[in-house]
Amino acid sequence: MFRKRARATEGERDGALAERSPLGAPSGVKAFDRHRCSRQRREPLSLYLVRRRTKQSTAEILSPTMAPPTPVPRRPAWHRRTAPQTSNSSGAPAVLKVRRSLIIADWICSRSRSDGRLSKMPTLTTRFRRRLREARIALPTKQGRRQLRRRYVFEALRSVVPVVGVETPAGLMFVSTRDRTVARYVYTSGAWDPDGLPDALRVALSHGYPGLASRVFVEVGANIGTTTLQAARVASRCVVFEPEPRNLALLRANLAANELSDRVEVIAAAASATNGVSFLALSSVNDGGHRVDNRGEIEVPTLRLDDALADRGVAPSDVGLLWMDTEGHEAQVLAGAPVLLASPPVTVLEYSPSLLRERGDLDLLNSLIRDRWHCVLDLHIRECVPEDLDIIEARYSEAATDLLLLPE
To answer: How far apart are CA 187 and CA 153, in angstroms?
Structure first.
C-alpha cells in the first residue's frame, strides 16, 4: 500500500510539472523517476540514462575501450537557452538544468570507478534528489543555480583530481579540491573576497593616503594567492609569506600561470616574533585556516618581519600596504617588526578576538594598534568610519572581521 501511494504521489508531481511547463515534461524526467522507483538500484543513474539512450549494454559502456556512443538526437527545446520562458513555467527548466549538471558529475564518478582509479566512491544521486526541489524554491536566480551546480561538480571532482583550475577576475587560479572553504568558494563563485583589496585602497585614498603604485605590497599569510594576484597587478613589487607546503605550491603555480612570478617574491616561512622554527596546526577543511601553534603537525621556519624585509632591500618607507591573515598570530607578527612600526604603513589585518584571546595575545595586539595607528576602521561595515577598538572587539567577540589601520 505504501509503495502504491508513493508512486501515485510521484505521478501527480510529474503531471503538475508538465502542466507548469509550456513544453511539457521531458523524457529525462520520466526516466529519472522510473530509475528511482526501480527495485534494482545497483547501477548509477547516469549509467542507466547512457545505456538507455545509446542502446548499449552495461559491459560495453564500462569497458576501457568503449566505442563512441551513437549520436544523440537533437535536444528538445527545454535544453536550449533560447527556449521561450513564459510566466507559467514556474522554474521547471531551471530544475532540469540542475539535474542535468548533477547527472554529468555522477557520470564522471562512475567512469572513474570503472577505470579502477577509485576504490570507494560516494553515491551522489541520493543527495542530488533531495536538493532538486530545494533548488527551484531557494535559488530562483540564474547565478544561484549556477553556484549550486558548480558546488556539486566540485564535490564530485574531489574524488577524481587533486587540483582544478578556475577563471577568476584576478586571473587563472589552481585550487585544491580537498579544501572545502576557500577553494570551493572560489570554484563556485569565481573569486574569494574580490572587493577586499579594492575597498581597502579606496578607503585609504579617501583619507589622503597614497596607493600601491611604485610601492611594495607585503602580505603575511598569502594562502594560494587570492589577494596576491590582485595586488601584483597594481603594486610595483610584492613580498609574501606562506609556510604551508601545499598552499605554497599552488601559490607559485598561480603566479606562474598569470606571468606574475617576476613581480612577487615568495618567502616559504611564517612571520613571527623570533627567527627559528615553529609548528603549524593544519585544518582539515580549510586550507586558509592553518595557524602557527606549538602543538601543530608540521615544522616550519619562522622569520622576523623586519629581518626578512631588510634582507630583500625593502625599507620601511617603501611599504605601501601591509596585509595580514594569520589566524590569531597577528600580534606576534607585529612584535617582530619594531623597525617597520616606527613609521607604520597602512595595514589590513584579520581581527578575531576569540582566537587572540585563546592564544593570550588580545591585549598585546590591542595595545600595538592603539600605540602605532591613529585610525581604526571596520571593513565589514558599509559605512566605513573610524571606530573605537573596544566597540569592535565587543561586536566580534565570537566572530572575525578585517580592520583597516591608518597611521597619522
So the answer is: 10
User: Which candidate, 14, 28, 1, 213, places its Cα nearest to that of 102?
Assistant: 28
Q: What is the 3-state secondary structure (H, E, C) of 206-251?
A: HCCCCCCCCCEEEEECCCCCCCHHHHHCCCCEEEEECCCHHHHHHH
> In sequence order, what E strands does 233-331 have?
237-241, 264-267, 270-272, 276-281, 291-292, 298-304, 319-324
DSSP state of 361: -
Burial bucket for residue 23 (CB in 10 Å: 0-12, 13-18, 19+):
middle
Sign, Cα dihedral of 179, 182, 183, 188 = positive
Q: Which three cell numbers stand for residue 256?
A: 606562474
Q: pLDDT tens digits, residue range 312-367?
A: 999 999 999 999 999 999 999 999 999 999 999 999 999 999 999 999 999 999 99
CA dist 367 and 350 (Å) reads 16
Which of 111-125, 212-226, 234-248, 271-285 is the least confident region?
111-125
CA–CA distance, 269 with 162 (Å, rounded to integer):
24
300 DSSP assignment? E
**Do the bridges between strand 171-176 and strand 163-168 make them parallel or antiparallel, or are there none, so unpaired?**
antiparallel
What is the model's pTM?
0.67
Q: Are residues 321 and 385 in the same domain?
A: yes
Helix H segments across 21-123?
27-37, 45-54, 58-62, 92-114
Same domain, 251 and 399: yes
Last residue of a domain, one of 156, 181, 207: 156
Range of 125's domain? 2-64+91-156
CB-count burial class (<10 Å; 0-12, 13-18, 19+) for 5: exposed
Q: Name the residue type at position 167.
A: E
Measured over all CA atoms, what is the biggest interatomic distance in the chain, rounded to whole angstroms?
A: 80
Three cell numbers written together for 52: 538507455
Looking at the fold, whether 240 and 138 belong to one and the same domain comes out as no
CB atoms near residue 115 (< 10 Å): 10
